[in-house]
Amino acid sequence: MRKFNTTAVCIPSKHYMVDLSERVTEIKKMVDAGEYFTINRARQYGKTTTLNALRNALQKSCTVISIDFQGLGDASFRTEESFCNGLIKLILEENEYGLIEIPSNILDRLENFIAVGHLDNKLNDLLKLLRLWCKSSPKPVVLMIDEVDSATNNQVFLDFLAGLREGYINRDTKGMPAFQSVILAGVTDVKHLKSKIRDGDQHKVNSPWNIAADFDIDMSLSESGIQGMLEEYEADHHTGMDTADIARQIRAYTSGYPFLVSRICQLVDENAGKSMGDLPKAWTRSGLDEAVKLLLSEDNTLFQSITGKLTNYPELKASIRSILMEGTKLTYNAQQESIQQMQMYGLIRNDHNTVRVANRIFETMLYNLFLSEEELKSNVFSKEGDLAKNIFVSDGKLNVRLILDRFIKTYHEVCGPLEDKFREKDGREQFLLYLKPIINGTGNYYIEAQTRDQKRTDVIIDYLGQQYIIELKIWHGERYNIEGEKQISEYLDYFGLTTGYMLSFNFNQKKETGVHPVMIGDKMIYEGTV
Known about the structure:
By secondary structure, the chain is of the alpha/beta class. It folds into four domains: 21-192, Rossmann fold (3-Layer(aba) Sandwich); 223-297; 301-357, no CATH class; 380-529, no CATH class. Helices cover 48% and strands 15% of the residues. It has helices spanning 21-32, 47-58, 80-96, 104-115, 122-136, 155-174, 223-237, 243-254, 258-275, 279-282, 285-297, 301-312, 314-326, 337-344, 360-378, 400-415, 424-439, 478-495, and strands at 37-40, 63-68, 141-146, 181-186, 348-351, 354-357, 393-394, 397-398, 443-447, 456-463, 466-474, 499-505, 514-520, 523-529. Strands 9-10-11-12-14-13 form a six-stranded mixed beta sheet, with helices on both faces. Strands 1-4-3-2 form a four-stranded parallel beta sheet, sandwiched between helices. It has a two-stranded antiparallel sheet with strand order 5-6. A hairpin with a 2-residue loop joins strand 5 and strand 6. It is elongated. 38% of the residues are buried.
């Protein structure tokens, strides 16, 4: 029986996974065209799984040398000799296990290469031997190197790239033998590396990998691809789930980030199924909510990587915080270094030339992180007794009207009247700080990215299988409020809801605070005013 997998490579015979054949076909076209390129994507984005599938697709037509730099320690990158020895040992290991067939004359020379320790230029000799292999091989030779990040700061690796670059150029200009294709995989975009001049601190103008083709193939998992995976699962387990609807919801949460897709499915299958009694109950909206809650509460390696990057790069953290907490609109610019880094680490995406956090899971995880930091600094609601009580839940339903009412009263008691320096982000932070302990451990929340702007924010709460929509905004007059009522009414239609909520921060001296109901067509809107 197959299962969902979130560690290392996914194997179709062992794991439920999205069909990668279309993606592999597109990459194979680049290999057939003789291109050298880098598959640089964020951590746990399916790079190794894709390389494995590509290798299987190429083996009939090509000799594929597939190695992983995780098999090399730091010492392997200190000198040319140690690098060459380490690289050859990885290749010989592939041959030993029957994964590749090395021509006998090349095999002998590779083995002798390690034994001979007096050659002056080990790297140059190895590159010549690899070109000879390409010449004598009956099939085109493809080199794949996974996990190249461990080598990117080492001069010997940059020199190795420069040698591959020279072979690529000589192949096309002089007809000399070279690899059919070289594929590097890692988080870092090797194309932007520059090789140091050994006798100074200046850099060469050209990158040693500037011959690499752009890799623009979408590696996120599509809604249809996720549905296909769920249909395979359903054929084995017969849960009765609506695979199309579940796939749509998973895609909405993850934007197709492979690890997040697999992890949510894994948590539904292995955890929500147990806690809810059986699998049919788990593969519902309630089961997905439970899985997302579990995912956001764990300290997995992906989240550790993200928080580690934010700690190491405070400017990146400040940019992400500004986008989320203040609604800052940042224009996407591929030449801007911080934007390059945020995208390389999988934190953001380009949404119509605007920087957006990559997916809803990351948004909520980062909101929780930033709100926790605010709590540690000064949580104005920390002494509010209502937050520890279960007064906001009745018959399994969240009483959002009461939440708004108590928030407004508590805000005025603790914070006093609104001041001119107040910004939308202040209200958003304070409300989420109030809301979080109420739903913590049972429900989730997220900020709807498509409606976030400088004037309004939609908070979506998932609580025990039900959704609640709260629009937060600063009061800009009655006309704008009427437009807001119309917009939230239309938004409720999209979610199939009949009740919504609005919370306005109003600076007018004669305002009437509190919560009152308003009927907009067939929708009931509870409007709260601070």
